[in-house]
Amino acid sequence: MINSIYHAGRVILLAAWCASCAPSDNRDEVVGNYRMDYTFGIEELRLLDNGQYQQTFQLAGDATRRTATGKWDFKRKDYPLVYLYDSMMVTDGQGNLRKDYGKPVPGPNLLLVRKNGGIVYLVFNIDLNLSLKKQMSSN
Predict the structure, then answer these.
(1) Cβ atoms within 10 A of the Cβ of 132, count?
(2) What is the pLDDT of residues 40-68, one digit of tens each?
(3) How far apart (Å, rounded) are the C-alpha atoms in residues 131 and 1?
(4) Which domains does the chain have, with CATH numbers?
(5) What is the DSSP-derived secondary structure letter of residue 139?
(6) Alpha-carbon radius of gyration of the chain
(7) pLDDT (tens digit, 9 = 90+) per residue, 93-124?
């Protein structure tokens, strides 16, 4: 009986968590500034409402900031996605710094749009739960 109650409680918590991670279907909600703090540096991404983006990465202990600019788009197929065209890919598939992190990769880089607790995230590695977090406006 106690195991059943415990299991039911876990199912309710999981359902509530999943509901709070709903995708965002609103392009206007995606526009803004994002940030990811790694152990090896900081990545920032600015999505402008005119379809342009600016991406910067600063390696820890290095004053130089690498920058990529280009176009982005919001599309919903099975899931809401942000397409960044010709952006830097800072990490490899295991979440480590790529050797050529400062060089933009041709073509689209797909980011899954998720929303949790009212905050928008752009997920770039779902297996490792790596995502850029939208920053609160300073206005």
Answers:
(1) 21
(2) 999 999 999 999 999 999 999 999 999 99
(3) 39
(4) 24-134 (2.40.128)
(5) -
(6) 17
(7) 899 999 999 999 999 999 999 999 999 999 99
Among 21-25, 52-56, 79-83, 99-103, where is mean pLDDT lowest?
21-25
Which residues, 6 or more positions from 68, have their beta carbon under 8 angstroms from its beta carbon? 54, 55, 86, 87, 88, 104
Whether residue 29 is predicted with pLDDT greater than 80 in this model: the reply is yes
**What does the DSSP assignment read for 44-92?**
EEEE-TTSEEEEEEEETT---EEEEEEEEEEEESSSEEEEEES----B-
Element (H, E) at 8: helix 2-20
The amino acid at residue 133 is K
d(CA 12, CA 2): 15
Tokens of 65: 């900031």
3-state secondary structure of 134: strand
pTM, entire model? 0.81
Structure tokens given for 24: 């965002």
Angstrom distance (rounded) from CA 73 to CA 23: 16
